[in-house]
Design a protein that fits this description.
four-stranded antiparallel beta sheet; 156 residues; mainly beta
Length: 156
């Protein structure tokens, strides 16, 4: 981690990590991969910016792509279940709140108002209500998306 004012980078975790997302409540969610023989698991962790309070939210569930809700109370994650990726909403302690998609979804990102979640599936961009249902394809045709970000409309 590095201050916006510049300066020397400071390590806040050991053991690696990727797909970090910073919450409005000041926590950082990230993914750490572990290898045990031929078995690979990726889990979602949360840590404070000073490196304290490290918590593992998923357990061998191949959790990936954490995305904080705008209020910092919930996370959208991708979880692999029986070889299929689905988007789930978990709380800050890792408890499952709801499953939004059942197959083929990745890269979830919350809308600025917290009502919808955009994601990719089969090279297409979709959104779904954060409370479930209301699946919409957002763009026609096949494209490639990754590292999505949903920003509010600028005020005019």
């Amino acid at each position: 981690m590095r201050s916006l004012r510049g300066g020397k980078a400071r390590r806040i975790t050991w053991g690696g990590g990727y797909s970090a997302d910073w919450s409005s409540r000041g926590e950082i969610a990230f993914v750490r991969t572990a290898f045990a023989g031929r078995r690979v698991s990726s889990d979602v962790y949360v840590v404070r910016p000073d490196g304290t309070g490290l918590r593992r939210l998923t357990r061998g569930d191949t959790g990936d792509h954490p995305s904080w809700s705008p209020d910092g109370r919930l996370l959208a994650i991708v979880r692999r279940v029986r070889g299929r990726r689905r988007i789930e909403i978990i709380d800050r302690s890792g408890r499952l709140k709801r499953t939004l998609t059942r197959a083929g979804a990745t890269d979830p990102v919350w809308s600025p108002d917290g009502t919808r979640i955009a994601f990719t599936r089969d090279r297409q961009l979709y959104s779904v209500r954060a409370r479930g249902g209301g699946l919409r394809r957002m763009l026609p045709g096949l494209t490639s998306f990754q590292d999505l970000d949903w920003q509010p409309r600028p005020r005019r």
